[in-house]
Design goal:
Number of helices: 3
Number of strands: 3
Shape: globular
Largest sheet: 3 strands, antiparallel
Helix content: 25-40%
Number of domains: 1
Strand order of the largest sheet: 1-2-3
Radius of gyration: 12 Å
CATH architecture: 2-Layer Sandwich
Length: about 80
């Protein structure tokens, strides 16, 4: 069983993805598009708090795990 996903803001998620090699491509309104050098693309809503389903969708698109996020947070 994987650990419970943390509550993150859009800005925290951008910092986390940047740490894992993603870079900003564009922004339209409150949504930021990030891309990895291998071609993975993720859209991040810049909200105060990401909904659990949105966070899991971002993790799935970026091929990251909850464990990797928790390690990045230092938890």
């Amino acid at each position: 069983m994987s650990p419970r996903a943390p509550v993150l803001s859009g800005h925290q998620m951008v910092s986390c993805l940047s740490h894992f090699g993603f870079f900003t491509v564009s922004q339209k309104g409150s949504h930021l598009k990030m891309r990895h050098f291998d071609g993975r693309t993720v859209i991040i809503p810049m909200h105060r708090e990401l909904a659990p389903g949105t966070l899991h969708s971002i993790l799935r698109q970026s091929a990251l795990t909850v464990d990797a996020i928790l390690e990045w947070l230092g938890v």
